[in-house]
Amino acid sequence: MKCLNCGTINKDDSKYCSRCGQALPDNPPSTLGDEHEQEWVAKAFGGKYQIIREIGRGGMAIVYEAFDIALDRKVAVKVLPKQFAFDDEFVKRFEKEAKIAAKLDHPNIVKIYDIGQQGEIHYFVMNYLSGETLKERIHHLQHLTIQEIDTISEQICKALSYAHEKGIIHRDLKPSNIIFDALGSVVLMDFGIAYAAFGTKITSTGTQMGTPHYMSPEQASGEVCDHRADLYSFGIILFEMTTGEVPFQADSSLAVLHKQIYEKPRNPAELNQSIPSWLVDITLKCLNKDRDARYQSADEILADFEKGKHGGVTTLEEVPKEHVESIASEPLPIKDKVIVDKPIVEEAAKTITDSNKQEAVLPKTSVKVEKGEVVSKIKDEKAVQPQAKKTGSSMLIKIGIGGFVIIALPIIILLIWLFSTGILYFE
After folding, report:
1. What is the mean pLDDT of residues 89-118?
2. Which pLDDT value is given to residue 85?
3. Region 361-388: what's the mean pLDDT?
4. What is the Cα–Cα distance from 196 to 163, expressed in whole angstroms?
5. Is the pLDDT at 192 greater than 80, yes or no?
6. pLDDT tens digit string along 276-306?
7. In the chain, what are the domain boundaries?
C-alpha cells in the first residue's frame, strides 16, 4: 500500500507508513504503471512540452525531463500523479508549492517558468538541473572536505535567509532536495510542504510533514513550526556532510522521530576527528532541541562560519615551520591561552635560530605559553648578561683585597713594629 504523504510502499495490512508514520488510507486509489503514466502525461501536453524521460519521483509528484517546444529549451516538468488529481488536499498542496516557489527569485533556489493544468494533469515547469544531488555526493565521498562544506553551507544559508525573509519556510530541507547545477552551484528544490508564515497552512497541528531523519523536534511532535525548523534540518545536513551519517538512526520512522524529540545527537568529531572544533560547535548549536537556543537566523550561521574560518585557534602541530620566521612581526598564541607581548615574542624569536637543535612550530597569528614557562625562561635569559658583568666585577674586587691582605698588610705591620722599637727612626 502506497503512502499518500511520502510515497513509500507498505505492506497491504499496514495502518501506518513505515517511513513517515502517516495513517494509510483504507481504500487506496488505483495507480497507473510508470510507462502508461508517462504516455498519459505526454499525450496530455500535446505539442507544448515534449516529455523525454522520468527523472524523479517523490511522495506526491513525478518529475520529467522535457523540452519546451515554443522556447526551444530543456526544462523539468513536475506533475501531480493522476491518482491524486481528485484529492483536493493534494491538489492544494501541489498548487501551493508552485505558487510559493514562483515567488522566490534567488540563484540558489529552483526557478519556476510555468504553472498550469492540462486536462486532469496539474503541473508546473522549472529549470532543468542535470547535476547530482547533495545526497548522491555524500554517498560517493562518505564525507566532504571542510572547503566543500563551507562553500555548500554558504549557498544553502543564503537561500534560506532569502526565503525566510519572504516568509517562506521550506520544512523538508534534506540533501536529496539540494542539487548542483552545471556550474556546481547549489540549488534548493521541492517546496512541496513549504509553509508561508504569513498565510494559512493546509495541514493542521498534530500532523507530521517532512522526512523523519531531517525533521526538527517541533515538526516531529506535530507542533506549528517556524523558520528555525529549517535551521535544525540544516544542522542534520551539516552532520551528514562531515561524517557521512545522519545523527539519528533507527529501525522505524517512528523510532527516528522519538530520537529527534528526546535524544541528544552524537558529537560529530567522534565519527570524524578531522572536523575543526568551530564546525562541531555550529553543528551542535543547530541541533539544539530548544529552538530558542538554536541559531535564530541563517545569517547568524554564516557569521559563525566566518568567525570559525578566520578566528579559530591553531594548534602548534598544525603550523608549518616556515611560519616561525614571522614570529617577531606580530603577536603569536603558544600552548595555554596566556598571550605574550610583542617584545617578549621578539626576544623568543632571537633564541630560535638553529632548527636542528630546537624545532619551533609557531602559528602566524598568535602564540600561547605553556603555564608561563616560556616567559620565565626568556626573563632568565635576559638577566644572564647583567649577571655575568656583576660576577666579573666582584671577582676583581676580591682579588685586589686578597692581594692587599697577603702582601701589603704584613709590610705595614712590620714597619710599625720597627718604628715602635726604635730600630728604625727618622733623624
Report:
1. 84
2. 74
3. 46
4. 10
5. no
6. 999 999 999 999 999 999 999 999 999 999 9
7. 34-127, 134-311, 316-382
DSSP 184: S
What pLDDT is stored for residue 82 in this prediction? 74
Task: Please name which of 48, 24, 40, 22 lies closest in space to residue 85, comparing C-alpha atoms.
Answer: 40
Give the Cα separation of 250 and 209 in Å (integer): 19
CA dist., res. 6 & res. 57, Å (int): 10
pLDDT of residue 213: 93
Pairwise CA distance, residues 327 & 304, whole Å: 27
197-231 b/e with 16+ CB inside 10 Å = b?
eeeebebeeeebbbbbbbbbbbbbeeeebbbbbbb
Q: What is the mean pLDDT of residues 14-43?
A: 60
Residues with active-site annotation: 172
Report the DSSP pairing between strands 367-368 and 333-334: parallel
Which of the pair, 78 or 196, is modelled with greater confidence? Answer: 78
Cα four-point dihedral sign 105, 106, 111, 116: negative
Q: Give me the pLDDT at residue 205, please.
A: 40
Return the residue matching grid coordinates 544559508.
Answer: 157
Is the confidence at residue 26, as pLDDT, over 60? no
pLDDT at 341 over 60: no
Q: 3-class SS at 384?
A: helix
Amino acid at 123: Y
Residue type, 299: D
Question: 153: number of CA atoms within 13 Å, CB side?
Answer: 32
How many other CB atoms are there within 10 angstroms of residue 417's CB atom? 11
Residue type, 360: A
User: Residue 107 carries which DSSP code?
Assistant: T
% the chain with pLDDT above 90: 35
Q: Which of 51, 159, 166, 152 lies closest to 100, judged by CA? A: 166
| CATH class of the 134-311 domain in this structure | mainly alpha
Give the E-state strand segments of 142-283 in sequence order.
Answer: 168-169, 178-180, 186-188, 195-196
Burial status of residue 94 (CB atoms within 10 A of its CB: 0-12, 13-18, 19 or more):
buried
Strand ranges (DSSP E) for 154-241?
168-169, 178-180, 186-188, 195-196
Contact 93/6 with Cβ under 8 angstroms? no
Residue type (1 letter), 33: G
Type of residue found at 350: K
Query: Considering only the top CATH level, what class is 34-127?
Result: alpha beta
